[in-house]
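Sample intake sheet
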Amino acid sequence: MLLRITKNYDKPHIILYRRDDGSETWMYAEDFFVRHDLSHYCLEKLLGYTTAFMGMLNNGMDVKDFEDRDKRKQMILSREALYAENIANLFLMEIAQGNFKNFNLIAKESFESWNREFPAPVLLENDITRIRELLRALLNSWKELPPGKIIELSF
C-alpha cells in the first residue's frame, strides 16, 4: 500500500491511501491527523502489523469510516488494531513532552485503563527506539515540506 500526503497551506492537507489492489481511499486532514497517521505508519511498518489501521485500509475499509462514530462502534478490531491505536497516541505524546522513562509501563497503564480483553502490549527497547527515530524523521520531513509538495511512503 502507498501512503501519499499532500501538504497544503490555506486548506486541509490530503491523505491518500492506494491499496495493493490499486483502489484508493482518502480524506482531507488537519496537521493532527497527518501526524497521527504517520505515527501509525511507523509503528505498524516496523512492528510488522498487518491487521491494524493500515491493514484495515489496505483490505478495503474507507478511511472516512474512522471519522463516523456509528461506524467506529461497529468495527471489529484485532489485537494489533487496539495496540496500534494506543501506541500511536503514546508516541505522539512523547514528541510533545519528551520520551517516557519506561514506555512499556506507560503503555500498560494506558491500555489497561480502557481495555481488559487483551494483555497490554510489550515492545522491545530496540523497536521503541526505531519507531521513535523514524517518527521524528518523518515529522521533520513533514514540517520542512513546502506547501503543494507530497510525501509518499510504501507500507
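Comment: The chain has a mean pLDDT of 94. Helices lie at 31-47, 53-58, 69-74, 79-97, 103-114, 125-144.
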